[in-house]
Structure formats: C-alpha cells, structure tokens
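Comment thread on ticket #2218

A.B. wrote:
> Attaching the input chain for the structure job we discussed in standup.
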Amino acid sequence: MRGSTITSRFVRFTALAVVALIASGALAACTTGSNAIKIALLLPESKTARYEAFDRPFFEKRIAELGDYEVLYSNADQDAAKQQSQAEAALVSGAKVLVLDPVDSSAAASIVAAANAQGVPVIAYDRIVNGGQLAYYVSFDNENIGELQGAALVKKLDEDGASGGILMVNGSPTDGNAGEFKSGAHLKIDGSDYPVLAEFDSPDWSPDKAQDWVAGQITQFGDRIAGVYAANDGTAGGAIAALKAANVTPLPIVTGRDAELAGIQRIVSGDQYMTIYKAMKQQATLAAEVAVKLAKGETVTGDIEVNGAPATLLSAVVVTRDNIMDTVVADGIYTVAEICTPEYAAACAAAGIK
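C.D. wrote:
> Ran it. Output below, let me know if you need it in another format.
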C-alpha cells in the first residue's frame, strides 16, 4: 500500500512543476543531445565543500566521457523534504538511474521505493539508505575511518605527553555514516588514557552548531581539554573557532575528515592536526560507470554486499603536515598555490610544501 501511495504522488506532478524546479536550480542538467539518457545525481548539502568542488564535477566528467548521457543534478541543502521533491522531479523528467547521497538515511527509503516502483535503479552514494532495494552502494569503510581518526588522535596525544580528556564533536544524527565514524573513533579512544569529557552529535554537520557546543564545553572543562575529535573538517573549523575565541593556548589536538582546502590549510598552520583524504575522484568515477551500466540494463557486481546490495568500499588515508604533498597535491586535488596563499606561505615553507 505504501508503494502505491508514493507512486500516486507522481501522477499529480505536472510539467509546470518540473520546469519550476529547473528554473529554481533544484534540478540542473548538463547540456547534451536531445536523445541523451538521463541519470540523476542527488547530493545532500553544500556546507561540506567536497560535494560541489569534487563529487559533482568528477561524476559529470566521467558521464560525459561514456557517451550521450544527461546528468540531472540536484543539491538538497540538507533538507530531506527538498531532496524528496528533487527525486520526484528527476523521475518525472525521465531519469533512468538515481545516484542518491541521502540527507536522511532513513527518510530516503521512500525515494528508493518510489524509484523501484517505476523500475528505476538507485545507487546509494557515500551514505547508505536504510530501507528499499538498492542497485549498488559505493562509499568507504566508515567505521575504519573513525578508527583512523581516533587512533591518530590518541597517538599524537601520547607523543605530546598530554594529559586530560577529549571532546567528541560527531556528525549529523540523520547521517548513517556519522554513527559509523563515531563507533570507529570510540574503538580507539575508549580505553585510552584520555577519557571522553563530553560528546555532541552536530545537527546537519553544522560548523556553527559545533562551535557553539564547544564554546560551552570550554567554559565547563577549561584546560582539561587535551583533544577534540571532530568528525569532519567543517566541525573541526567550528571547534577551532571556539577555542581561539576563548584564547585557549596551546590549542588541543583536533581531528577532521574530507581533506577540505580550509582543513588542509589549518593543518599547515598547526591549528588542526589531521584530516582524512577519501578518494573522491575514484568514488565519483565508479558511481558514474555503474550508473551507465544500469541505464543500459547491464548487470553490476561489487566487491562485497551491504544490506543486500552489491557494493564497493574504498580506502581512506590519514593526512598530516608530513604527507600533504604525497596525497592531495600528488592526486591533483589541490595545487601548492591553492594551499599556500599569502596567509599560509610561511607555514608552507616551514612544512616543506613547495
């Protein structure tokens, strides 16, 4: 009954509604031939820089290389209802495959069900969907990423002879990956010499909300804060802003993830200790290739199964000042000039980034 109710919603969509979505930027299409097969890319938000800077262009580039295909692109701005509407518009527009990075891993099950009802396969991209029949899942071993973050934090605290505890600034409670990052980090932090003083699940991965929470913890714990586990570079930036506003010196050891340019620059300057570099080009390229195969009706296979779907989980790398040149620069994610702006030139020189 639920599937038929969802399907009936599409009947009420008109061409005018789709045109309005396109005009408002909710559904943007690459320019291709009029007979192009349509593939929808539905990304969750833009506060995390990687989506617009890397995932989208890498995906669109590979799709263009594979033939006459049209990418229907949408960004939900962290709004699950908006993503639902964008998915509906993509289906009405004739998308043959949905590549979905869900805002809300549970709510997105209705998107998968609606697509399946029309015979449209769905690839879960970066974040799993909790429900529905997925055609493929491409992401990273997220619990392992949390372990890498937690292990790097504990190791650095040990090397520095630190004492005190750790604040944990976790990711969004609606993001299934965030729970896996947190679980992995706890595997390394729990049982270490650094107790968790307090932890917070940052709504919408908001740097501002992370900053506000850390500011409150500084008032409570003061110089007992030896480290901050921040689940991504955005929340790391918020935490560091709070620490600087409170004139905390020296800064605690702060983790991150996603290898955002701002995060890399904070690592160069010494404000942030590490980040996680995920092979976003490889991920987006693989998703594009699988999407094209599905659009052509071909069978796809993965390295493993996740929730009954064929899947590929890619590897991730810890980035510190010592290996920036060997990772994000070597892979062409950033140039030295992009990292070493005048503000960071001296720090780059000291770190041997040139």
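A.B. wrote:
> Thanks. Noting for the ticket: The first helix runs from residue 2 to 11.
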